[in-house]
Amino acid sequence: MSVKVEALTKIYGEQRAVDQLTFEARPGEILGFLGPNGAGKTTTMKILTGYIPATEGKAYVCGRDVAEDALEARKLLGYLPEHNPLYKDMYVLEFLRFAARLYRIPNPRARIAELVELTGLTRERHKLIGALSKGYRQRVGLAQALLHDPEVLILDEPTTGLDPNQLAEIRELIRQLGKSKTLIFSTHIMQEVQAVCDRVLIINQGKLVADDSIEHLQNRLQGEVIVTAEWAEPVSAALLQKIQGVGKVRAVSDRKYQLSGPPGRDLRPEIFHFSVAQKMTLLEMHQETSSLESVFRQLTQSGDSKELLHEN
After folding, report:
1. Which pTM was predicted?
2. 134-144: per-residue pLDDT in tens?
3. What are the tens digits of pLDDT across the range 111-169?
């Protein structure tokens, strides 16, 4: 595993910011790290990157203990914090050259040129960092985090301040990076998670409440399954009621219906095979799912302890 966290706990006074947190992140995986404000996301990231120590538990980056082998662990990490710390009186290229010297990167000129192009900073490379928009400062921070080509990349709210065009570009960049690196990605924007993440962790009050794929989370937390289907010719509700697994049938028109079934059951194969057997021309069908936003609210809206939803 690229990242492994075991019973991680961080206590401030009487507050447990992180409470017995355990999870893993695999190589080549983009892991969405979600939770309401104050849930412990940033604290967990700071522990993983060696900024603060854990009160209890262990965290490993590519097998290196982040507390006992901190320097080696940090060499394998790239980190873009939520509040991106930059020297605003330095020029973009000047700052990246400075960071490259700290990392002792061989042939820094070529590496910096590669990252400037990769992060879309070509037109801004000769500007003062203080004169850049927030979105471009995020790009500078991302370039700096990637300079030493880390195996693990931790991004805390990386798309904050980006306009829609920049969002699309950074999403694509994150997808590309996720093919070769382990990426832990924190955000409050659910569309971002659905667009780029392979798996989701949700924490609430410092505790892990979900660890699963987006699709599995949505299917497991929704109520009845609803499939909307449309045929080329008129169809009777009584006929559709005969499809195995179908409970209720609601007509939208004489050709279009909503069919419901028990939670977790995919009705689409049954609808398809039934249509073929009845020689009915099926034009389209889609299954309604709970949105990730509604799943998030279900898991984090109260302080009650909840059963952990975990990938099988």
Report:
1. 0.75
2. 889 989 999 99
3. 999 999 999 899 999 999 999 988 899 899 999 999 999 999 999 988 877 788 878 88
Tell me which architecture the domain covering 223-288 has in CATH: 2-Layer Sandwich (3.30)
Instruction: Give the CA angle between residues 81, 85, 88 to the nearest 5°.
Output: 150
What is the predicted pLDDT for the residue at 303?
47
At the second CATH level, the architecture of 3-76+150-218 is 3-Layer(aba) Sandwich (3.40)
Q: What is the pLDDT of residues 206-238, one digit of tens each?
A: 999 999 888 777 666 666 678 999 999 999 999
Delimit the CATH 3.30.70.1560 region(s) of the chain. Answer: 223-288
Angle, vertex CA 189, rays to CA 156 and CA 218, nearest 5? 115
Task: List all residues 6 or more positions away from 206 whose beta carbon is below 8 Å from its beta carbon.
Answer: 10, 16, 17, 18, 19, 21, 39, 40
> Using an 8 Å Cβ cutoff, are 125 and 92 in contact?
yes
Residue-by-residue DSSP string for 51-63: SS--SEEEEEETT
